TrEMBL record:
SUPFAM superfamilies: Periplasmic binding protein-like II (SSF53850). This is ATP phosphoribosyltransferase. InterPro entries: ATP_PRibTrfase_cat, ATP_PRibTrfase_CS, ATP_PRibTrfase_HisG, ATP_PRibTrfase_HisG_short. The lineage of its organism: Bacteria, Bacillati, Bacillota, Clostridia, Peptostreptococcales. Belongs to the ATP phosphoribosyltransferase family. Short subfamily. It comes from the Bacteria. It comes from Anaerovirgula multivorans.
Amino acid sequence: METIKIAMTKGRLAKYSIELLEEIGIDCKELKEDSRKLVFFLPQHNIEVILLKGMDVPTYVEHGVVDMGIVGKDVLMEQEWQLYEVVDLKFGRCKFSVAGKPVIGNGKKHLRVATKYPNVTRKHFAQKGQSVEIIRQEGSVELAPLMGLSDIIVDIVETGKTLKENGLVVLEDIADISARLILNKVSYKTKKKEITTIIDLIEKKVN
Ligand SMILES: Nc1ncnc2c1ncn2[C@@H]1O[C@H](COP(=O)(O)OP(=O)(O)OP(=O)(O)O)[C@@H](O)[C@H]1O
Ligand SMILES: O=P(O)(O)OC[C@H]1O[C@H](OP(=O)(O)OP(=O)(O)O)[C@H](O)[C@@H]1O
């Protein structure tokens, strides 16, 4: 039997991803240990799990370095990837929203938008016919309107706590986000039996 390689997003999605694999019978004890290891071989299942930043998960899947991956829909929306998105895993739920100060001077012809997601932002405002200048940020996006760097932001909102504690409000929702199972297109053909078995077990668990 061929080894199945899975790329997992570190951070918020990791705990739920590990829980899901355990629920379908994959022993992930090693993955739960507090370590700096990034590659885990689970010999009893012939599965290899690697841990990556979200944006790097589809890159590994697309290049066929791994067969499948678990990643947020936000990452899949930000860039076009050559891969299959097969299951909505229903955890890691949050939203893409436009947010800003409660009063942002409605009717402004040109808005400055700070975001970690320039493509999602560009597409959203293009659809609305709103002219924007996108200011790319790496984090703490909420700071931008507070400091006068931007008029508004496009960011992920989960509980709304970060917005609230910084005096910002949601002005508009863009899309619902959750974690997705993604597949390499070639692996799906060459390792069809093993991959289909895993997808079926996961689908049964989440639906
Ligand atoms: N409150 C949230 N903030 C950010 N992402 C969230 C949130 N809730 C769920 N997610 C999902 O979790 C995924 C991983 O987010 P997380 O911030 O843990 O990852 P990361 O790799 O550390 O990214 P970064 O360093 O860019 O913040 C996101 O891509 C998103 O799909
Ligand atoms: O609605 P909430 O539950 O408050 O969650 C949303 C916040 O969490 C994320 O930031 P993260 O913690 O990843 O830090 P960052 O600012 O470095 O991106 C996101 O960018 C928001 O700032």
